Amino acid sequence: MTVRVGVLGATGAVGQRLIQLIDPHPDFELAALTASEESAGKSYREAAKWRVETPIPEDVAEMTVVGTDPSEVPDDVDLLFSSLPSSVGEQVEPEFMEAGYVMSSNSSNFRTDDDIPLTIPEVNPDHLGLIEVQRDERGWDGAMIKNPNCSTITMVPPLAALDEAFGLTDVRVSTLQAVSGAGYDGVTSMEIIDNAIPHIGGEEQKMETESQKLLGEFDGAAVQWHEADVAASCNRIPTLDGHLENVWTDTEAEITTEDAAEAMREYESIDLPSSPDPLIHVFEDLDRPQPRLDRMRKNGMQVSTGGLRETSDGVQFNCLAHNTMRGAAGASLLNGELLLEEGYL
């Protein structure tokens, strides 16, 4: 049975990626596109400056964009994907929950709220149980889940693999993040060409807190956050797509590079259409992964690791994921597939 879905913030960069992924999806049928009042009433072709590398789907191009308001979205839409700016999402998303819609959101607002599932389906699908807590506490008929920040989602799967096998106590990460993570107008060419920017506002805190929640244990009523100490330094570099990260971990049990590589390779994926198998690819080469060469592995949904080295208390490694596929639109789509699989639609 096809699920009718809508995209909130459909004209933006992540909204366009969502449309690219939803259009051929076996289970989802695109039924609603929302944007700002300036775009409402226009065809999607008129409203969106299409910047995705594949052509705009013809059937989508002729759809009429509506305002981002529950009254504008058809009642028979079963699932909403939100790619709204967090400042807008904070105000608008609860209105859709109160109206009874189920939402998979990429927006950063509410991610660390106690009753909002922050989910990577291959890592913590059981956190979806927070939906029942959420409905009880907020009185919503609908439901909301979030995917994490695009830099967090790159390092958490390999961290989860190490934690499961050896126990994490300490994590340090330095990121080399692509310009697409800031949106099309986020970083000017004069800022980033021949340059690196050693600060991304709010990014360090997101990585530090979201990873602890994602790696935490759900006890049926709440998530007990992981106690590992996490510290991040986030940097913007002049690559288009693909966040590369250098990670240092300390573990409770002794670990070798061979142990770490095996744990990552054997970490299980999940049986959902957009989830890659294997979830993590481990490179033997010390100079891999690289953004240009490796960001599109498994349709941009696989996490790549490499450069494994032993340290005094754990291991160091590099990891990479496509930040607008695995890290944003694809992550939101995958959460939508999880909602369907678990019977919330």
Describe the structure.
30% of the residues lie in helices and 23% in strands. It contains eleven helices and 14 strands. It has helices at residues 13-22, 44-47, 58-61, 86-98, 130-138, 152-166, 189-192, 203-214, 257-266, 291-294, 325-341, and strands at 3-8, 28-35, 66-67, 79-82, 102-105, 143-146, 168-177, 217-218, 223-224, 229-236, 243-251, 280-282, 303-310, 314-321. It has a six-stranded parallel beta sheet, with helices on both faces. Strand 12 (280-282), helix 10 and strand 13 (303-310) form a beta-alpha-beta unit. The longest helix is centred in the last third of the chain and has 17 residues, at 325-341. The N and C termini lie close together (11 Å).
Number of helices: 11
- One letter per element, helices H and strands E, the order comes to EHEHHEEHEHEHEHHEEEEHEHEEH
Shape: globular
E-strand count: 14
Average per-residue pLDDT, rounded, comes to 97
Query: Span from first to last CA?
Result: 11 Å
Report Rg. Answer: 19 Å
Main structural class = alpha/beta
Helix percent reads 25-40%
